[in-house]
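So, can you check this one?
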Amino acid sequence: MDKTTELRAYAKLNLALDITGTDGEGYHLLDMINCTVGVFDTLAVSRAAKVAVTMDGKPCGGENTAYRAASAVERLSGASLAVDIVKGIPFGAGLGGSSADASAVLRYAADAGLISLADAEEAARSIGSDVVYMMHGGMARVRGRGELIEPLRQSELDIVIARRDRGGSTAEVYRKYDEIGRQGAGIDGVLRGETARYNVLEAPAVALCPEIARLKERMRGAFGEAVMTGSGSAVCSIVADVDNARRTLERGFCDANFRAVVKTVPRAIEYL
C-alpha cells in the first residue's frame, strides 16, 4: 500500500450567479463569478485493495461524491483509493463541500499519474457542475454546465460568511427556480462594476427557506452588500474592515450556526 497523501480541499463562493437557459439534456446553463475561500475539508488519500471512503469516521457509499470520484479513478486506471474526509465545509451551505471532496480525489489521481487531467475533468463533469472549477479554483468566471472556466485577476478579498438554516436541497432549489424563474441583470455588468452582485437562485431558495432573506437583511445591515452563495443557504459579504467584522461575529451575530471571516485563496487544492 502506498503512503498516505493529505490534501486540503477549499470551499467556493459564488459572488454572482445567473442562469442563461438550459441545454438539450435539460441541464441549467450557468454564468457565475466564483472564488475560492479559506474554509476547507481535509482528505487523506492512499492506494488500497478496493475503493473505500469515510467521512468523519463513517463509511460512505455510492451517493457520496468522493466515492463516485474514486470509482471513476478505479474504472479509468484500475487503481483503488481509500479516502478519509474530515469535514470543515458545512453541509447545505452553497459552499461546494461535496464538490470539493470529489475534486480533491480527481486532482490527486491526475497529479499522481493514475489518470490524465483530461480524464479527471471529464469525470468531474459527470459528478457535478462545480467539480471541474474546484479542481483548479481561484477567481474565475464559470459558464455552461461548469466546464467553461475563464480565470479572472485574483483579488485578495476579506469575506464574511454566515448560515443559520440548511435550506432546501440543490435539486429542490432548481425545481423551484423552474417554477418561478428570474431574469438576471447580466454577469458582464457585475464584472464592469455597473451591476450589484446577485444570485438568481436566491428567490427560489428563500421560497423554500425564508430564513435566508432575514439573514441577508441582517448581513446587509452589518456589512453592506450581501449575496447568497450557490443554492444556499449561506450568505456572504465582502468587507473592508476585517477587525470590525470579527468583532461583530464574536458578539454572536444573528445566532448563525456557521459564521466566519475568510480570505480568498488562489488554489482549490493544497497538498500538506
The CA atoms of residues 164 and 255 lie 7 Å apart. The two ends are 19 Å apart (CA to CA). The chain has a mean pLDDT of 94. Residues 97-111 form the longest helix (15 residues).
